[in-house]
């Protein structure tokens, strides 16, 4: 045990992964202006309600299959370049999964009111752009999960993929392969942030040379 701890302590820290936003993801971010929110939502109803801990543990266990769920936006100062996705070093699924009880009588009206209330508030751009509510007290002993995800994080098809990752197709638990270690060097992260600024500045890089040539002529 001590040897394992010493080996872990001797390993260099893993640099966060960095990914560019796609044009459609960037458009979704730029289109968001109060009171218009650019998140999407979904609802799953269960005959036997899951617990908040169950849902958080499942996401933690399978996060490597949906890695964007553990990433946050890294926005450049003064907006000099486009934001990028980076791993959130403080990410814990339990911070994004909430437990809530429906008021009586616990029907679909109360469930829809809950969903409407949660969908009317924006997501925090300083954290991974999603939240879930594990709903208890639905009539008939049932439960539900209400999910909210920013459109920059998922589109319709991606949201379906997330549900298939979290849920198993049969009552037996699906065996999922462990994640493979991966890291993005800090230099690559800096290059990802600087690329849009470099493109913006490129037309002006030769201006001094052209001015000097004109003066000589």
Properties at a glance:
single chain, 217 residues, alpha+beta, Chloramphenicol Acetyltransferase, 4-stranded mixed beta sheet, 3-stranded antiparallel beta sheet, 19% strand, globular, disordered N terminus
Assign the CATH architecture: 2-Layer Sandwich
Helix content: 25-40%
Strand order of the largest sheet: 2-7-6-5
Order of helices and strands: HEHEHEEEHEEHHH
Q: What is the CATH superfamily?
A: Chloramphenicol acetyltransferase-like domain
Question: Any idea what the radius of gyration is?
Answer: 23 Å
Per DSSP, what share of the residues sits in E-state strands of 2 or more residues?
A: 15-25%
Structural class: alpha+beta
Give the overall average pLDDT. Answer: 80
Low-confidence stretches: 1-13
Shape estimate: globular
The CATH top-level class label: Alpha Beta
Number of domains: 1
What does the main sheet amount to?
4 strands, mixed
- Looking at the structure, the CATH topology is Chloramphenicol Acetyltransferase
Please report the total strand number as a whole number: 7
Contiguous helical run count: 7
Q: Separation of termini?
A: 76 Å
Explain how this protein is built.
This protein has a single domain (14-171), classed as Chloramphenicol acetyltransferase-like domain (Chloramphenicol Acetyltransferase, 2-Layer Sandwich). The protein starts with a helix and ends with a helix. With 217 residues, it is an alpha+beta fold. The strands form two sheets. It has a four-stranded mixed sheet, with helices on both faces. Strands 1-4-3 form a three-stranded antiparallel sheet, covered by helices on one side. The protein is 35% helix and 19% strand.
């Amino acid at each position: 045990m001590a040897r394992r701890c010493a080996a872990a302590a001797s390993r260099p820290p893993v640099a966060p992964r960095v990914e560019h936003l796609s044009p459609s993801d960037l458009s979704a971010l730029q289109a968001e202006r109060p009171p218009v929110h650019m998140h999407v939502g979904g609802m799953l109803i269960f005959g036997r309600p899951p617990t908040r801990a169950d849902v958080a543990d499942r996401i933690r266990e399978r996060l490597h299959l949906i890695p964007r769920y553990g990433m946050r936006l890294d926005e450049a100062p003064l907006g000099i370049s486009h934001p990028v996705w980076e791993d959130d070093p403080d990410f814990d699924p339990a911070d994004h999964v909430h437990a809530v009880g429906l008021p009586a009588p616990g029907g679909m009206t109360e469930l829809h009111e809950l969903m409407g209330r949660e969908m009317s508030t924006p997501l925090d751009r300083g954290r991974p752009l999603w939240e879930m509510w594990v709903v208890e007290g639905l009539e008939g002993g049932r439960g539900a999960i209400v999910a909210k995800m920013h459109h920059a994080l998922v589109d319709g098809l991606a949201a379906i993929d997330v549900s298939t990752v979290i849920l198993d197709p049969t009552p037996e638990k699906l065996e999922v392969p462990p994640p493979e270690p991966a890291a993005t060097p800090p230099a690559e992260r800096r290059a990802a942030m600087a690329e849009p600024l470099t493109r913006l500045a490129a037309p002006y890089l030769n201006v001094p040379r052209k001015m000097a040539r004109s003066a000589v002529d």
